[in-house]
Design goal:
heterodimer; A: alpha/beta; Rossmann fold; Arc Repressor Mutant, subunit A; 2 domains; B: alpha+beta; Heat Shock Protein 90; 3 domains; five-stranded mixed beta sheet; four-stranded antiparallel beta sheet; 18 helices; 9 strands; elongated; disordered N terminus
């Protein structure tokens, strides 16, 4: 799988490239700001672009803006955004045009090479990845009293959060130390409460969750 | 702001004119009286077809009174405002008026002199009307008109006299024209037409000029020149009519000549009217003293001053001694009028110290004495107002400096956040990478090291999470990037207590306002989570009618403010809000929850 990396800090850019090579990816190029990234993607046509949000010249959300442009111009290129901050709003902005091949991870997740590799793989394959911290922020916040999320039980919210991370029922069951059957029951209740038709497909579950979160 | 104009009281304003001036005044007055009497005698003994003064009812008294009022007004102006050219112009006009009657004399010498200076009064009259009330011509066109008029009444008139036979060209009973070199009737007629044509052109142009000036004039300016301008236009019109009648061949003297004669008599009457009007205006100063000095008099003296000066556009500035500048009633800066803006300024002093500046219509410059007396009369009221204005100016300064402090604090916080992000955070992430790499490369034989690596990794993740919270607490980047709404949404999302957020915000607000609102909500949420024992918090932010209202209400135990340790964070925030011109109130009755309410101007 071909990837490119964009980060203005040379230490992180080079380090990330090394990690990715180590994990078996082909690093097709490095960029240090948004416009460089766009040129690089146009030239190299990678499977995944790994993008730092805060980059020059504005040092605000350059990376996010570049990511949105990549989504619009090269929809087959997956985007994995790395951020030092948990900005659920940014994740939603990124997902608003569709959840295929999009991911949002905190930077410190790079300390687990296996998980990083799995995330890149999943985004490259058209799946989606959301950092658990982001998901918990999305799920835990309430906006209005008539928000259906408020009607979920605590356990159901936990399950929804894990679903949003893209985990299977089996994985959720392992995580929560319950049987897979119990998880299935929770998932069914969640879909009923949120008025979403259930689906056996992992990816479509994320899509549904994200669509729900996004619709607010 | 330009240089501060300091109009010190001038010496002539303090006392009466000097002895030399008095002698000159009496001499001029005596000469005027004599000239008037002589002219009265000459005119009343003139022949039946006299040419200086038409045979009209009351012609002789009118002639004398007009001349005397010109000279008298001139002397009055000179006494009240030496240095103003208008006095000289008026006195000259009076004597020129008398001189124009000399052609009625039977004496050939006086007759010839009268013929030579007869039209001088037209040139000086033109100068008078165009330059009133300053005595200075205002533009190139004015000067050109007067120059042409002077050329016509001197060179043109004298050229005519060189060829004119008095009996043929003037009147049957006239004495001889001593200046006649040779008789040339054709040349006389030609020159005569040039003179009349020139006169009509000058009169028409002057009417146009006065009309234009009138349209552009401010109220006060119109007030100052109205009688003279009207009389001037009437006199010009009458002269044109008389000339046209002559050119059209009507027999002399025509009804238009009579009209022109009486119309020129209107000019000195108008000049006198203006003088009297000014005397009356000065009477208003006495009323002002009473009005401003009355018991319980407080508030803005502008109204009273504006009435006394007859200038509704009057503005006041008060001396802010600490910064050597003028401020308005509310402590705001005062703009001084630039040159040519039609506005002017006069400084009022007490005991040699500036108190206030009156910014008034430039037309009042011609009556500087009135402005000075009005300012002096209002001195005490202005001094009182000045002290208050100074206090307000200090408050304005203080407010501005507090706002600057808040901004400086925010800038510093932003810098620290950036330094942490670019430095420590990145280094820690880099370490996390190395750790990940090391972990991946650990041989199976190093299995004992695996848990240590895993634990280090967790510690590192915790350190990064703490650092993340710290940096966001120092300065929330999302505030700059996405605005208050998004920032509050996130803040409520990650709060340690359930927070319901309602936003009624439209677009971005000024950065200091957003920052203050963010910190207030953040502090309130922290306090609610720590102390209130509340189950939920409601947060609402509304920006309407230029006011941002943020309310954070919990359903906890209340009684905040009594609890130790709660105050300092809120006090700092209250200072911050106050510095931006808003306010922060806490309502926390025991058992009824705590409500924090912040109001900040947001437009």
């Amino acid at each position: 799988m071909r990837v490119v990396v964009a980060d203005d800090a040379v230490l992180l850019r080079e380090g990330l490239a090394r990690l990715l090579v180590e994990a078996g990816f082909e690093v097709a190029g490095l960029a240090s700001d948004g416009s460089e990234l766009l040129e690089l993607v146009e030239r190299a046509r990678p499977d995944v672009a790994i993008v730092d949000i805060r980059m020059p010249p504005t040092h605000t959300d350059e990376g996010l803006q570049a990511a949105k442009q990549i989504r619009a111009r090269w929809p087959r290129t997956g985007i994995l955004v790395l951020s030092q901050h948990v900005h659920a709003g940014y994740a939603l902005e990124l997902l608003s045009a569709g959840t295929d091949g999009v991911g949002y991870l905190l930077k410190e997740r790079v300390s687990d090479l296996a998980e990083l590799a799995a995330s890149v793989q999943r985004v490259g394959a058209g799946g989606s990845v959301l950092d658990p911290a982001v998901v918990s922020q999305l799920v835990s916040r309430r906006r209005q009293d008539d928000d259906p999320v408020t009607k979920l039980t605590g356990r159901e919210r936990e399950v929804l959060a894990l679903m949003a991370e893209g985990r299977s029922n089996k994985a959720i069951a392992e995580q929560l130390f319950v049987s897979e059957y119990t998880v299935e029951k929770h998932v069914g209740n969640i879909f009923t409460t949120l008025r979403l038709p259930p689906s056996p497909d992992d990816h479509r579950r994320v899509l549904a969750v994200v669509a729900f979160l996004n619709a607010q | 702001m330009g240089a501060v104009p300091l109009t010190r009281s001038r010496p002539w304003q303090a006392g009466e004119p000097g002895q030399a001036a008095q002698v000159i005044t009496w001499l001029v007055a005596a000469a005027g009286l004599l000239a008037g009497a002589a002219v009265a005698w000459i005119v009343s003994h003139g022949g039946p077809d006299r040419i200086g003064v038409p045979n009209l009812p009351l012609a002789v008294p009118v002639v004398v009174l007009v001349g005397w009022s010109f000279i008298g007004s001139g002397l009055l102006y000179w006494w009240s405002r030496p240095g103003n050219h208008i006095a000289a112009v008026l006195i000259f006009q009076g004597f020129a008026w008398f001189a124009s009657m000399l052609p009625d004399s039977h004496n050939p010498v006086l007759f010839t002199i009268g013929q030579a200076v007869y039209p001088f009064q037209y040139a000086s009259g033109l100068y008078l009307i165009l330059s009133f009330p300053s005595g200075r011509l205002q533009g190139r066109l004015d000067r050109a008109l007067v120059a042409v008029a002077v050329a016509l009444v001197t060179l043109g008139n004298w050229a005519w006299l060189l060829f004119a036979d008095s009996h043929r060209m003037m009147c049957h009973t006239c004495p001889a024209n001593l200046l006649e070199l040779t008789r040339d009737d054709a040349a006389v007629v030609d020159v005569f037409y040039v003179l009349r044509f020139g006169g009509i052109v000058i009169a028409l142009t002057s009417i146009g000029l006065l009309a234009t000036r009138w349209r552009r004039a401010s109220r006060a300016q119109r007030h100052a020149v109205m009688p003279v301008a009207v009389a001037g236009v009437v006199a010009f019109a009458a002269l044109i009519a008389a000339y046209v009648a002559r050119v059209a061949g009507m027999s002399s003297p025509t009804v238009f000549d009579s009209f022109a004669f009486y119309a020129s008599a209107a000019v000195p009457v108008a000049v006198l009217a203006v003088l009297i009007q000014r005397r009356l205006a000065r009477g208003a100063v006495a009323g002002l003293v009473v009005e401003l000095g009355g018991p319980g008099q407080a508030g803005d003296p502008r109204e009273a001053l504006s009435r006394a000066l007859g200038d509704p556009s009057l503005a006041l500035g008060y001396w802010f001694a600490a910064e050597s500048r003028y401020v308005d009633r509310n402590g705001g800066p005062v703009e001084f009028p630039g040159a040519g803006s039609g506005r002017s300024s006069t400084v009022v002093e007490r005991d040699g110290q500036p108190v206030a500046v009156l910014i008034h219509d430039a037309a009042l410059d011609d009556n500087a004495r009135l402005v000075q007396s009005v300012g002096a009369a209002a001195g005490l009221a202005l001094e009182n107002e000045r002290l208050q204005a100074e206090l307000r100016a200090r408050l304005v300064e203080l407010q501005a400096s507090r706002a600057r402090l808040v901004e400086a604090t925010d800038a510093e916080r932003r810098r620290i956040e950036r330094d942490l992000h670019d430095g420590t955070q990145q280094r820690l992430v880099s370490i996390a990478m190395s750790l990940g790499l090391a972990d991946a490369k650990l041989p199976a034989a190093g299995a004992e090291a695996k848990p240590i690596v895993a634990q280090t990794r967790e510690e590192l993740a915790a350190a990064l999470a703490e650092l993340r919270d710290l940096t966001q607490g120092i300065y929330p980047t999302i505030l700059t990037e996405r605005g208050l709404g998004a920032a509050l949404d996130e803040l409520c999302g990650r709060a340690a207590i359930t927070a319901h957020l309602r936003l009624f915000l439209d677009g971005r607000l000024p950065a200091p306002v957003e920052t203050a609102a963010y910190y207030v909500v953040s502090e309130a949420l922290t306090n609610a989570a720590k102390h209130s024992r509340a189950s939920a918090v409601r947060v609402a932010a509304t920006c309407a009618d230029g006011l941002l209202t943020v309310e954070i209400a919990d359903d906890g135990v209340g009684g905040a403010g009594a609890g130790a340790g709660r105050g300092s964070g809120l006090r700092g925030l209250a200072d911050r809000v106050d510095a931006l011109g808003g306010r922060l109130t806490v309502s926390s009755p025991p058992g009824q929850g705590t409500t924090l309410r912040m109001e900040l101007p947001c437009g």
